Amino acid sequence: MTRNPEKLPIGFALNGDHIDVEVAPHELLIDVLRDRLGLTGTKKSCDVEICGACTVLVEGLPASSCTTLAADVDGKAVTTIEGVSCGGKPGPVQQAFIDCGAIQCGFCTPGMVMVTTALIRLHPKPKDEQIKHFLRGNICRCTGYVKIIEGVKSLA
Ligand code: FES
Ligand code: FES
Predict the structure, then answer these.
(1) Ligand 1 center–CA 139 separation, angstroms
(2) Which of 33, 34, 50 to mutate to test the pocket of ligand 1 (most atoms within 8 A of CB)?
(3) How far apart are CA 14 and CA 17, in angstroms?
(4) Is 149 helix (H, G, I), strand (E, B) or coil?
(5) What's the count of helices (H) and strands (E) in the chain, helices before strands?
């Protein structure tokens, strides 16, 4: 295979599976995930790291995929919303959000679920301040956050 000299070959673990891909130096992780790898669960909204809709986990910690260069995840582990479901069914965090009525339009939900996944892993019984701290970068225009916080607490 002839390599495009303007592209960088990178390899990373995506939802547990190793993938190799060539990316342009300026290419953003969200565009690689959505447009090239077909993982459209990660949402794109503000594009400038304000809304949290595009949050994925990089090495287990939340990262805005709209401001992360794809080249920067070379050799790392990336988890998207597709990686936290259980065999096509909702995973525990998704189910908690469903059960607590924490989803209305659902646009913010993938980002909220990813942040909550990281939070629960680090703090299995999070205090209110820890929940608010973790969710502070994720905007929801529908729910008023009460149900979302209830959903997070129901996991403890
Ligand atoms: S789309 Fe990335 S933070 Fe809003
Ligand atoms: S459920 Fe609609 S933006 Fe959060």
Answers:
(1) 10
(2) 50
(3) 5
(4) helix
(5) 5, 5
How does residue 50 score in pLDDT terms, banded at 50, 70 and 90?
A: very high
Starting at the edge strand that comes first in sequence, how are the strands of the sheet with 77-79 ordered? 17-23, 8-14, 77-79, 55-58, 61-64
End-to-end CA distance of the chain: give it in Å, rounded.
50
Count of other CB atoms within 10 angstroms of residue 43:
21
Four-residue CA torsion sign, 143, 102, 113, 121: positive
Query: What values do phi and psi take at 128, rounded to 5?
Result: -55, -45
User: Treating both helix axes as pointing N-terminal to C-terminal, what angle do 146-153 and 109-122 enclose, rounded to 10 degrees?
Assistant: 40
pLDDT tens digits, 58-67: 999 999 999 9
- Expressed in angstroms and rounded, the spacing between residue 156 Cα and the centre of ligand 1 is 27
Check if 104 has its Cβ closer than 6 Å to any atom of ligand 2: yes
Ligand 1 within 6 A of 76 CB?
no
